[in-house]
Every structure is written in C-alpha cells, then in structure tokens.
Amino acid sequence: MKAGSPYLHPHRPEAVWDVSGAFVDDRELVAFYEYCRDALSLEPFHIVHGAPLCPWNSGRVLSHMMREAEDIREAGLAYARLGISVYLTFTNLLLGPRELKDPVGHALCRFFSRNNPTARNAVIVANDGLRELIRREYPELRLVSSVLHITNNEPVRNPDVYRRLADEYDEVMVHPDDVRRPELLEKLEDKDKYILIINEYCIRNCPIRPYHYRTLSEYALNFLSYDDSHFMKAKAGNGCGELHTLLSDETRRVLALNEPELDALYDMGFRHFKLQGRGHANAAPLLTDLLRLILRSDTATQNSMHAAGVRFWESLSPASPR
C-alpha cells in the first residue's frame, strides 16, 4: 500500500487486501487498480484469487467462468505488470491420480510460476495429492491451506490445529466461524501466516457447510451432468437465503464483519484480509465493498471519498477520458 495517500483509511494502513474475480472480472479489476493508483495514490488490493473452469477448481464452477487460453494469459500478464499476486483457487477436495494429470491445471501452474514478479503467486489447495504435486513440480508457487480443507478434514479446530497447518503451508485460511472467535485467534503466533475472510455471507455454524463443499467438488468433476437437487433440498431447510435468518437470528446470522470487528482483528495483529466474490454476478459489489474498506470516512469531505467509486465506474465508459 502506498503510504501517505489522503484517501487511505487511517486505521488499517498495512492491511493486505485479497479480492476475488481472477479470470472473471479481470477488466474491471485492472482498471480499478490503475484508477486508484493514478487518481488516489494508493494500491487498492495486492492479491487476486480465482480459477477458470477446470477439475482442480471448486466453488467457482459456473458457465461464465469458461475462458479462452489467450484471455487467461492476458489477465495473468496484466496482474504481473501491476505487481499483483495471483492465488489459484484449486480447492477441489476429491482429486485422484487421473484428475491430477489435468492439462489446464498444469498449464496454469507453469504460467504463474514463470510470471511471478512478486514471488508470492500461490495455489490454495484442499487435496493432499494436489498439495504434494505443487510442492514437487511447481516449487515457485506458495501453498495455502483452503477453508475447504480445514472444514472437511479437521473436525476439531483449535490453536494447535492452526499451528500445525501453519507449519505445513505458507499461509492458512481461517475457518469463517473461527474469524469470530477472538479467544482462539489471540493464541495464534505469526499472524501474518493467516488469512481472514471478512465478507462471508453464509450463516454462522452452518451444519451443511462440509456437505456443501463436497457437493461443489463433485460438481466440478461432472460439470455437464451433475444433479444438485439433493443439495438444494438440504439448503432449503437450512436458513440460507432467508432474510430474517441472515439478519436477525443471533445464532445463524451472516458471518460478515462490521467495521469495529475488522478493526479489532487488525489491532490483534492480522493483516491479510480476503474478500470473497464467488456469488456476485459482476465486479460491482466486490469493488463497492473494497472502496468502503480502504477509503477513509472520518473527515468533513467523506462524501468525496465515496464519490471516488462513482468516478471510477464513469471512467470505464468508452466515451470517458482516461
């Protein structure tokens, strides 16, 4: 983050922002980064995560994620040019020997190993076989333990589990429910190794989260003909999507953090904050969240801070001067 920008939120100057949208919203993300750099003298985010449609992917298995190889290459080169690290979300739980030979996954690993100016490009994994493959064949890429891994493979989540994962991986995704457990987080040393999701809109202590993650992995392996009716039936009785549950039920309301809660995590020593965006139809909600979090709002001219977002979207118009 560039120091000294008058627009920057004063309480979180060292925060590392990690946004979704790689290989989906690349045009908007690159334009937003350049706009904030040139107009506001700050770097709005440092990491972008995502993955195009392939068997190693999970959770982002949507038809609009299909991309031509040249589009992926251009996006990767743009991120490299701007010094933005790319975290490939290869979080499928169910990969076997056949799936580990997937040519798309290997091509992406080769590309981001070679185009890695920050030396921080990474792969987020949930499968032990893929972890060992990355470690053996693509040592230039860092390894990150996925939320899917800790959800489906670690029935007891305590400080010792997180310390073990921090020894095995370069970084560790903290389970969204644990982001709200300060008594656990305070006991974690080397807080730079942990990544906290701050805009998780699933319900708290979701009983079907492991089942949901496994369903997503099955879907990725059988994209064209997978029947998800069994999951949709389970979801219908879970409170997901019910406005009253999400906003008012104290035990099952959304996990997304408010500003004081985020500030408390920052004061505790955490610096890597991840904004998920897999449920968004486009980049607008994600960038609105990011503007709210990175820009200051404590001055008499705070409205002009939020107007920066309006000016950015206007700048994307072909008729607007850049």
From TrEMBL:
Source species: Candidatus Akkermansia intestinigallinarum
Protein name, UniProt field: Uncharacterized protein
Domain of life: Bacteria
